[in-house]
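Chain and backbone:
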Amino acid sequence: MTLLTTWSESGPETLVRRTSDPAEIAEALKPLGVRYEQWPIREDVPFDADSDTVFAAYRPEIDKLNAEEGFTTVDVLGLHPSDDPEFPAKAKAARAKFLQEHTHDDDDEVRFFVSGSGIFYLHVNGEVHAVFCEKGDLLGVPRGTTHWFDMGTSPSFTAIRFFHEEDGWIGNFTGSTIAGRFPDYDTIAAGYEADRAAA
């Protein structure tokens, strides 16, 4: 289940919207040019599946999206907790890469979550939209949209990434500190889990 939380860019004290209804989320994101949809979940795909397994499982959806959008490069990115003593440093570095506000001038940012979760924060038209994506969610952020991404302090996700450019992910950082003024992944995820447990 996805969660959309929208605040005024002035800070999280001014809550504009909070919903986990997929139709409401899609409707709220559509005016921003953001593509949000849910793909069928392949329950037989392990949470830490390798690229070949992921591609085989989601080939129909991948081919359809490529035909619609003309992507030239598709890859699979996975990061999950492990016993590797280097994992904490690797996770910290991976999180830091995407945590500051940035844009992409030459490409959209399109991700499908095969497993796990992460939050895209979209800073548009005076508001900040935190889109908590989980297994089965696809989000497409249009090029030029100011945003950041938080995978949390202990990342666990596998995602299919789609690119129009062969160079892949290239971020243009704004230098803004706005990301530090809003609840991070760990805070939102903890509250979301508490809400679901109480439901």
Remarks:
- Helices lie at 22-29, 51-57, 59-69, 87-98, 185-198.
- The longest strand covers residues 109-124.
- Residues 9 and 119 are 17 Å apart (CA to CA).
